[in-house]
Amino acid sequence: MRASQLFFPTLREVPKDAELISHQLLVRGGFVRSVAAGVYSYLPLGWRVHEKISKIVREEVNSFGGLELHMPVLVPRELLDETGRSKVPVLFGLKDKNQREFFLGFTHEEVVTDIVRNSISSWKQMPLYLYQIQTKERDEPRPRGGLIRGREFTMFDGYSFNSNEADLETIYRENYRAYGRIFKRCGLEYLAVEADPGAIGGSENHEFMVLTASGEDTVLRCTHCDYAANAERAEIVANTGAVTGTKQESKVVPTPGAHTVEEVAAFLQVSAEAVIKTIICVADGKPVAGLVRGDRELNLPKFVRVIGAKEVELADAETVRKVTNAPVGFAGPVGLQIPIYVDNELRGGAGYVVGANEADAHRINVQPITDFAVTAWGDIRTAVAGDRCVRCSEGVLEEARGIEVGHIFKLGTKYSKDMSALYQDEQGAKHPIIMGCYGLGVSRTMASAIEAHHDENGICWPITIAPYEVSIIVANGKDEAQRTYSESLYKELKAVGVDVLLDDREERIGVKFKDTDLIGIPVQVVVGKGLNEGVVELSLRRVKGEKETISAETACTTITAVVKREKAALTA
Ligand code: ATP
Ligand code: MG
Description:
This protein is α+β, with helices and mostly antiparallel strands.
C-alpha cells in the first residue's frame, strides 16, 4: 500500500475523553473513530489489525475441528425467555413494526442451542464445535477505554456439543491450548486464571488475562505453585478467627458519629480486624446477613454459592432499616431475625465489635454462636494478596492487574435442559446435550496489545497483527533516485509476500517518522542520502534508537529475513 493513497487521519492531540493509552493511540493513529459512547468505526488501519487477529483466531480454532458459522445480531425475545436471560441488564432491546420484541445479541448460547436442538438427535452427530466471529451489543453501564469495554464489540464465540463429560473435557482443553497459541501469536503474555462464571453459568471456567497495570481485574497467583484465580473467585484457606481481649459478656456501648469500620475502630481503640461488618443482602427476594471481618470485603459471587441462591444483591436502605430496626450503618447480628452467614475467618474468634442495631451504638465482646446463631459458615470474603494458597501449603497469593481477553466455560447441561436440546444415546435413551462455550474479545485483544506494547511515540505492534509489517520511508520525495529505488524495493517486497507500506507522501521526513512510529510499523526502512553510497537504514520499532545500515542492493533479502525472524519469535 502507498501511504499517499491510504486513509489514516493521525492526530497530534490526545483526545479529551481518552484515559487509557490504547484508546488514545487508536484514535491518534487513525485506527478508529468514536461514533457514540462505546461505539466505534474501524478505519482502514484498524480494520487490518482486526482482521489479522480474526485470522489467527480462525486458524487456531479450525486446527482442532472448529466450524465457522454466522448468526444474526437480532435475537427474538422468546429464545432468551427460555433460559430466563431476557432479564440480563446489559441487553439492548427493540420492537419491530408489529410490536414483536427482539434483543441485540450479547452472546449466542440460545441461538446456537436452538439450531442444534432442531438438527441433532443422536450421540453419533457429536462432538460438534461451532463458532463465529461477530459483532456483540451490550449496554455496558460504564463503557470505558475505547475498545477495551465497548457497547458494540467483536467477539469470537465458540460452542461445543457433546454426549459425554470426557469429550467435553477434551474439547475444553483443546480450546484452552488454542487460546494460549492465539495470545502468543498476537504477542501477548497471558495468564489463565480460575474465574467466576457470572451470568453465563456452568461449572469449571477460566479467564485469560493480559497482565498490565491498566487492567480492570485483579488476579491473585501463588508465589509457589501455578494456582491463579480472579480475585472475585480465589478460594481461601479456612483459618481460625482471632480472640481479641478476654471473653466477657457482650454489651452495647455508645459510638457517636462513628460510622465506618475505621471510625468505629478508632473510637473504640481496637484494630479493624476486631470489628465485624454485617452486610444485609437480599437473596432470591429474602433478606439475609453476611458477616466478614472489618478489613475484608464480602464477595457476592461466593456468597451466592454458599447460600445456594440464584441471585444475591445488596439490600436497599429501606430493607436494611426494616430488618435491623435502625438507621443504615449500624447493622449487627445480635437479635437479627434473618439467616446469618459468617465468613470462615471469624470461626472460633471472640471479642468482636458489631453494630448494635440502634443509632450511634455498637456492641462489644461479641462471640459468634454464643451471642448469635450462625446459619452457616463459609468462604464469603474476597481473597487478597498475602492470603495462603489453597492448592499448596507453601505459597501465598500475590496480586496483579489484568485485562480479561478470553473466558471459557464448561456449561454442562444448563442451556440444553432449559431449552430441551436432547440427544439419544446408544440405547435410545434421551439426555440433555453437554455443552461448553468459549469467548474471546477480538477488539479487546487489539486494544490490550497496545496496552502491553507502546512507548511515548506510539504503538509498537507485534509484527503478527501490525497493519503493515514494513514501512519504506522515502526521505526526500523530490530525489529521483530515492523515489525510483523505493518504488522497486516496494514491488520486490510485495512480490515475496511482505506486507509493506511505502511512505511516498509529500510530507517532511519528520512527519513521516512521527506517523510511522505512532501507527507502530514494526520494521522501518529509510531510503535517504546513503543511497548514493549504496545503503539504506533499517530499524525495529520495538528497539529504540538502534539503526542498522544495510546494502541497498540486497535490501529485499535482508528485510524479508528480519520479518521472518520477528514473526518466528511469536510462533506458537
Ligand atoms: P467483563 O467481565 O469484562 O464484563 P464478561 O465476563 O461479561 O466481560 P464474557 O461474556 O465472558 O465477558 O465475554 C467474552 C469475552 O468478550 C471477554 O473475555 C472479553 O474479551 C470480551 N468482552 C466482553 N465484554 C466486552 C466489552 N464490553 N467490550 C469489549 N470486549 C468485551
Ligand atoms: Mg467473563
